[in-house]
Design brief:
The protein is of the alpha/beta class. It folds into five domains: 15-121, no CATH class; 139-269, Sandwich (Immunoglobulin-like), CATH 2.60.40.10; 312-451, Beta Barrel (Elongation Factor Tu (Ef-tu), domain 3); 456-724, P-loop containing nucleotide triphosphate hydrolases (Rossmann fold, 3-Layer(aba) Sandwich), CATH 3.40.50; 735-944, Rossmann fold (3-Layer(aba) Sandwich), CATH 3.40.50. It is built from 32 helices and 46 strands. Strand 31 (601-604) and strand 32 form a beta hairpin.
């Protein structure tokens, strides 16, 4: 028992370093953990007496604060027992609790406040801001009502208008009617809010002649004109002021004027299929009885000599990850399980916990793909299952995976396992236990199970004894003091003649080839388009020439990157020297033709499966190429540690540190040299758990090394790192902004002029010699059905127009494959693909992650977000993935000759990085579409705060309008809620 940090157990004489939070009822093992806790939102809310909206559990007769705690409550044994005794399902919806003892519900904020804190709550800035918003909404509702016998007749929504009609001008003519015979009502004024300077420039104008009075039953007409030369949405508020001459009293009637300028067919075809309703995560019934299925023979295609560890999530970790806010979970993990310092001794423990944390989130995210009402088709030995989204790897299903099947009539908890034997475009073939039966009329629940093999391979690597500081935690003492070799002293005969004229590339090759065994890892820091893979391949070829005993294991984070390495090595190596290993689940059709003879297949059911040749032959290969995860094969089949003199890892920034360690910790010895290439300024690995990201799993091995002193790009040049500076991809205008922002302005444009200048003087360019276009469009971000992913029809339509113009231009000829469309939201990807299908089906549309490492002659970016809920702006939610510097860097550096960005500047400009980029484009003449709403010559405030400015302007309008209405004696209430982003737009890591 603990009191004030002292253990009161008489058998214990020691003093424990313990702090207790009396408000939250939690105990902390150190003052630091306690200090972190009292800064959390949850603690501060409780200290203010705020408990969210209470829910009431009838079976238990208990009040539960908020949805998160409700989910924890319904899983307790006590709750389940109470429900069973009363014949109530344990996952029944809760009751909303209006009265809670000792609490008062604040309807404005929709939270319960302890009575003793009520007065203080009423004066908090958050409550007052919400109160102002409620008052504004009420005043607006009142203003839009007809009153005092006066009615405004007419539709103020122009609807969907083609840009040619909007450019020519369109007019609507509403009328004012007075239905009171004896009244004397005078029209004082008609004013658009934009004319007051509160909103940005409006395309609307109003034309009227105020009469002395609005006569009884004599319609009075006025006109509202639209004039806009670009696509996009516009909205304004028309305030009409009247005066009752007899009562000497003024009153207002307001109308909102709207228009969508764009393609009517696109808006009709791609509008939301159903109103957005957040998907409720129902409590999953546990799988208590699973009948094992028949797994494919490919799982035994590789003759592994040692079993993988199970490495399942420890049971004690699950409750910690299931309860509380992200901040409190992280505090508990650090206090209870994670080592305070990560070094050679604690390295494995630290990363094993991070893997378990990520696995827990991955399992939860897989629930999103559950199919509640599936059909199965029987074909020979297989049950065929249609899987929506399979082609986009949502979910990702590979041969050898397990899928659980439950007939609707089955007992709760009883499932059959189906082993995945083949995967087609939208269909998988399963084999279940022979007792399983399925008729055409049956319906099934489907659950996808996480493929744990990649995780288990990472755990296996972490469990090994290898923990050399010169590889994991290199310092200056690990670097030899002798001068590093230079190209002039090495005198290499290069295979790639271009490297001979590129000093940084040549230095990197020389440094790698001339390194003594057992050196610190060498880093090829390769910003976009600088040829880091070319440099790595040249280094591999030079090593093979310099040392007949050299053996090389070359890895990459993805199959496409590994294929690129192998393809470039084919020219100089025979099938007895180079081996490209693929996981047995890999489809043969996905393998480049020139690499097929460098692989090995083992015959089996439904054809061959990729495997490995006999061990003796495997040892003779001078180069083995695999993905980081599949690199476990060499240790797994019995090749001894130290067999490979060099371990290379390309695109190392996209692999988690445990993935990169699969090859290093299982195969390196004291003499093995490690070479990494990548760019820590671009996207890191895909991590689904916010907790794992916060704890460092998103920081790749190469990024962590680059943060160490010996990898300073100047002091460590040639010794531990070389930064490549010649960019062979992009036009200088495209390269300039990211170069200055992320790479100290050191990158030199060296691209082929025929390629990079291909779109100069194109009619698509607002500035003939500046191949960047920012198309400003005020759209609307929508969601539909249960998907929380955003899409924007206005931007979709504009992207389609650009693709149509690109493909139709006979002077600037281009193919579908030369165009790439990048957008951060999955729903927008799907909509754009559908829109382009009849126009240019070969154009790749994907996320930023899908384009990393790739290039296209033309890149079009659709940023999607166009929220107008400016009073409730939260920059993290409003911009989401868009306001991520690395995502921005990757997106804008994929283009060779033309970069087109379609987006809402008023939303993008809230982020300092985007505002700087928009200023750059505007000042160079690349702006088109809607106007810019700020002065681009004013230096950008890097600390941000632009969302506060917008919120302040919005509140100024809101308060001014409310005051005007209050002066006219009007009042009322109404409010709205916001909601959260999810992992739905985060792609899945592509591993096999």
């Amino acid at each position: 028992m603990l009191a004030n940090g002292i253990c009161e157990d008489p058998s214990c004489s020691g003093r424990h370093n313990v702090s207790t939070c009396d408000i939250c009822g939690l105990v902390f093992g150190s003052p630091a953990a306690y200090a972190a806790h009292i800064a959390t939102r949850r603690h501060l809310a409780k200290a203010r007496g705020e408990c969210g909206a209470f829910l009431f559990c009838s079976p238990c007769g208990k009040y539960v604060s908020g949805r998160n705690l409700w989910q924890s409550h319904v899983h307790t044994k006590k709750h389940k027992a109470k429900c069973e005794s009363k014949g109530v399902p344990p996952d029944a919806d809760p009751e909303e609790a209006e009265y809670v003892p000792n609490y008062t519900l604040c309807p404005t904020c929709n939270i319960h406040i302890q009575n003793e804190h009520w007065d203080r709550h009423l004066s908090t800035p958050k409550h007052l801001a919400r109160q102002r918003f409620v008052s504004f909404q009420a005043a607006l509702d009142e203003a839009e009502r007809d009153k005092n016998g006066i009615s405004i007749v007419g539709d103020f929504d122009f609807g969907i208008v083609d840009v040619s009609a909007a450019k020519s001008g369109m007019t609507i003519s509403p009328t004012i009617k007075n239905a009171t015979p004896s009244s004397k009502i005078s029209l004082i004024s008609m004013t658009l809010v934009s004319a007051k300077g509160v909103q940005t420039k409006s395309p609307f104008s109003v034309d009227y002649v105020p009469p002395r009075t609005v006569g009884y039953n004599i319609p009075y007409s006025f006109s509202v004109t639209l004039l806009q030369a670009h696509n996009g949405r516009a909205e304004d508020r028309l305030e009409i002021l009247f005066e009752d001459m007899q009562l000497k009293k003024r009153f207002m009637i307001a109308r909102v004027v709207r228009v969508i300028v764009g393609n009517r067919r696109d808006h009709e075809n791609f509008r939301p299929s159903a109103p957005f309703k957040p998907r409720k995560r129902a409590a999953r019934q546990p799988e208590t009885n699973v009948v094992e299925g028949v797994l494919p023979p490919s799982l035994k295609a590789v003759p592994y000599v040692a079993p993988l560890p199970k490495a399942t999530i420890p049971p004690y970790l699950v409750p910690v990850l299931s309860t509380g806010s992200t901040t409190s979970i992280i505090d508990n993990l650090r206090r209870l399980y994670l080592p305070p310092v990560v070094d050679s001794n604690t390295y494995a423990r630290h990363y094993k916990f991070l893997l378990w944390i990520e696995e827990f989130r991955m399992e939860r995210d897989l629930e999103h793909y559950d199919i509640p009402n599936a059909k199965l088709t029987v074909h020979n030995f297989y049950h065929l299952l249609d899987v929506p989204g399979l082609a986009e790897k949502r979910p990702s299903v590979l041969v050898g995976d397990r899928i659980l099947v439950q007939k609707h009539s089955s007992a709760s908890g009883h499932w059959f396992e189906g082993g995945v034997h083949f995967v087609r475009k939208e269909e998988v073939g399963l084999r279940t236990h022979s007792s399983f039966r399925a008729s055409p009329a049956d319906r099934f629940n489907i659950r996808f199970k996480l493929n744990r093999y990649p995780l288990r391979r990472q755990h296996l690597a972490l469990d090994t004894a290898y923990s050399e500081d010169r590889v994991l935690f290199p310092v200056a003492q690990h670097v030899p003091t002798i001068p590093y070799p230079t190209p002039s002293s090495a005198k290499l005969r290069v295979f790639n003649s271009l490297i001979g004229t590129n000093a940084p590339q040549l230095q990197a090759v020389v440094s790698i080839v001339k390194r003594p065994p057992g050196s610190v890892p060498f880093v090829i820091f390769g910003p976009p388009g600088t040829g880091k893979t070319v440099t790595m391949v040249e280094a591999i070829r030079q090593l093979l020439v310099a040392d007949p005993k050299a053996r090389i294991l070359a890895c990459a984070s993805s199959n496409s990157a590994a294929d690129l390495i192998a393809t470039r090595l084919v020219a100089g190596l025979t099938t007895d020297e180079l081996f490209r290993f693929y996981a047995p689940s890999r489809n043969r059709e996905q393998v480049p033709l020139e690499l097929r003879e460098y692989t090995f297949e083992k015959e089996g059911e439904r054809g061959g499966h990729f495997s490995v040749p006999p061990l003796a032959r495997m040892k003779r290969f001078r180069v083995v190429v695999a993905t980081c995860v599949s690199a476990s094969v060499v240790a797994g089949i019995g090749i001894p540690r130290g067999h490979y003199t060099h371990i290379f890892c390309d695109e190392a920034g996209q692999a988690t540190e445990p993935e990169a360690m699969i090859a290093i910790k299982t195969m390196a010895d004291n003499n093995t040299n490690v070479v990494l290439s990548g760019d820590p300024k671009q996207l890191g690995p895909i991590i689904r758990s916010a907790i794992a990201r916060e704890l460092g799993l998103e920081i790749s091995y190469i990024e962590r090394l680059m943060q160490r002193e010996i990898y300073d790009e100047t002091a460590g040049y040639g010794k531990s790192v070389v930064k490549l500076i010649k960019n062979f991809r992009s036009h200088n205008a495209i390269l300039k902004f990211p170069n200055e922002r992320f790479y100290k302005g050191e990158l030199q444009p060296c691209g082929d002029t025929k390629t990079i200048n291909a779109y100069l003087d194109s009619p698509l360019l607002p500035a003939a010699k500046f191949p960047i276009v920012f198309h400003a469009i005020a759209g609307k971000d929508d969601r539909e059905a249960a998907s929380p992913s955003f899409f924007n029809i206005d931007e979709l339509s504009q992207v389609k127009q650009y693709v149509e113009k690109l493909r139709a231009d006979r002077r600037f000829r281009i193919t579908d494959g030369d165009i790439g469309v990048i957008t951060p939201y999955h729903a927008q990807c799907l909509k754009i693909r559908a829109a382009l299908r009849p126009v240019a089906d070969g154009v790749k549309v994907g996320s930023v992650e899908e384009f990393q490492g790739q290039e296209r002659r033309v890149i079009i970016i659709s940023t999607v977000r166009s929220s107008r809920e400016f009073v409730e702006y939260d920059l993290r939610h409003t911009l989401g993935f868009v306001a991520n510097p690395r995502r921005f860097n990757v997106a804008v550096t994929r283009a060779q000759a033309l970069l087109i960005v379609v987006g809402d500047p008023d939303v993008l400009g809230l982020d300092p990085l985007w505002r700087s980029f928009l200023n750059y484009v505007y000042l160079n003449g690349g702006w088109t579409g809607g106007d810019i709403s700020w002065d681009p010559d004013v230096p950008v405030a890097e600390e941000g705060g632009y969302d506060d400015v917008v919120r302040s302007l919005a509140e100024r309008d809101m308060n001014a309008f409310t005051r005007r209405m209050e002066a006219l004696t009007m009042e009322g209430v109404e409010t709205a809620d916001a909601d959260d982003d999810t992992n739905v737009d985060r792609p899945w890591q592509d591993v096999e």
